[in-house]
Amino acid sequence: MSTTPSPTHALTDVAASDASLRRFLHGLPGVDPVGLEARAAALGTRSIKTTAKAYALDLAISMVDLTTLEGADTPGKVRALGAKAVLPDPTDRTAPSTAAVCVYPDLVEVAKAAVAGSSVKVASVATAFPAGRAPLEVKLADVRAAVAAGADEVDMVIDRGAFLSGHYLKVYEEITAVKEACGGAARLKVIFETGELSTYDNIRRASWLAMLAGADFIKTSTGKVAVNATPSNTLLMLQAVREFRDRTGIQIGVKPAGGIRTAKDAVKFLVIVNETAGPDWLDNHWFRFGASSLLNDLLMQRQKLATGRYSGPDYVTVD
């Protein structure tokens, strides 16, 4: 049994034992897949007017975690990405900065220097991202290294094998240990890899498990598998954070990641946020897009709205 202190809230006793945690998670209401997907599809058809669209585009830009998570990442690429995060459109300084730059732990220091003096946060994936297959002590060392280098946020992956085997307390204790390793210096985003959890019921259970363990954000995916963020799984997670706040008074953020590539997609997600969790989540402190290519389309659509025409292909930098 871990000696890591458990988070304190109205549902603290739920994780007192493996049996009580299992009883709580399996006692959550079952998800109606047809109803969930129909609701997400209906919200995706909502149209917004020009003024609202301008606001939505800027809001979406401000919510982007501009991300590079490739084996070929270099300090030069991270510096360029940091510059773009701070000033996404060098020809229009009214464009907002992105929320964060997300990199591997060994490049945190480079990213931190690149965004110094701005509002842009530095997020770092840790815990043996993306598979999460490493001993706990290795995962915690990964987290501590990222935080020591200056990471403002840590994106961890859960042990999907343990979760799918029903070892919920093991997953809970790993999250609480990572939270402790963040030391209060970094907010913790917990990634489920929803495409590997198979069912909506599992996504709901993972959402509650992470929130009970002290996650600051719950995140759909790594972006490294075939199925990543979808309107349906994001809607389900937004329902979970709304219900968690109703029961505990604690607000948790949501981050869909992977597969969100166009401004049109981003606006659909913002409508889902507003209609499901409510306007309190329409802020980059509580909602993010994990994306690499999304920002370019947001900038192109923003320019089109301002001038009535699209610029050439060299209007935005290719990340």
Describe the structure.
- 46% of the residues lie in helices and 10% in strands.
- It is α/β, with parallel strands linked by helices and 319 residues long.
- β1, α4 and β2 (100-103) form a beta-alpha-beta unit.
Q: How would the blueprint of this fold be written?
A:
Layout: H1 18-26, H2 33-43, H3 50-62, E1 64-67, H4 75-86, E2 100-103, H5 108-114, E3 121-125, H6 136-148, E4 153-157, H7 160-164, H8 168-182, E5 187-191, H9 194-197, H10 200-212, E6 217-219, H11 231-248, E7 253-255, H12 263-276, E8 289-291, H13 294-307
Parallel strand pairs: 1-2, 1-8, 2-3, 3-4, 4-5, 5-6, 6-7
Helix pairs in contact: 2-11, 3-12, 3-13, 4-5, 6-8, 10-11, 11-12
Shape: globular
Low-pLDDT stretches: none
Largest sheet: 8 strands, parallel
Strand order in the sheet with the most strands: 7-6-5-4-3-2-1-8
Structural class estimated from helices and strands: alpha/beta
How would you spell out the order of helices and strands? HHHEHEHEHEHHEHHEHEHEH
Q: Mean pLDDT, rounded to whole units?
A: 92
